[in-house]
Amino acid sequence: MREPGGRLSCIESEGSALLFLKLTIRMVQSDARSQMEERMNNSIIGVDFFKTETLPEYFSFPPDFVNFISFKKPPNLFPWWLMCHYPGTSDAWLKLLRRSYPARQLIPFAKYDYTDDIACFDASLPSENPSVYYIHMFATPGWENRGNVIDFNAWLQAALEDARRDKEDMQ
To answer: What is the largest distance, in Å, between two alpha-carbon atoms of the chain?
Structure first.
């Protein structure tokens, strides 16, 4: 209701303020939702993938890796840890890897806690199921290779065995 002189009554102004507040909340929620959807194009909730422009155009993560990191409660891999669970870590290791070993086309995804070893997907050739290389970071080029396994599942089995042995050693 308008009061004499054209001012809004307290009831109308509170209703308008409430409507304004509801519209503002919806706009903020919509903006947050669109930002989240944009982020999810490159990630899974709780997982920080690389920025798309940093990866080779033909590279895609193996389906078994994507499924594994999608678990709400994945098995404990310590002393290995997955870089995608720590924002910015994947891109930082990729930059360092490319600077240290420019001739290699590797995509890092896991780090061994007790050493400078990282696990990387081989991105030298397009593959749905790339090999995994163990790289000893900070070694002289040509001396960085610590071995490889056929794919992510082979790496995962080895990582689970490392975790089992580490747990035994701690007891």
So the answer is: 87
pLDDT digits (tens, 9 = 90+) for 57-74: 889 899 999 999 988 888
pLDDT at 1 over 50: no
Q: Between β-strands 106-112 and 117-122, what pairing exists: parallel, antiparallel or unpaired?
A: antiparallel
Helix axes 152-170, 63-70, angle to 10 degrees: 40
Q: Is the pLDDT of residue 83 over 70?
A: yes
Say if residues 37 and 105 touch (Cβ distance below 8 Å).
no
Report the relative pairing of strands 117-122 and 132-136 from DSSP bridges.
antiparallel
Distance CA 76, CA 167 (A): 10
Q: What is the dihedral of CA 15, 20, 26, 27, to 10 degrees?
A: 170
**Residues of 110-145 as b/e, b for ≥16 C-beta within 10 angstroms?**
bbbeeeebbbbbbbeeeeeebbbbbbbbeeeeeebe
Residue type, 138: F
How far, in Å, CA of 156 to CA of 109, rounded?
12
| Residue in the structure block whose two tokens are 């290791």 | 93
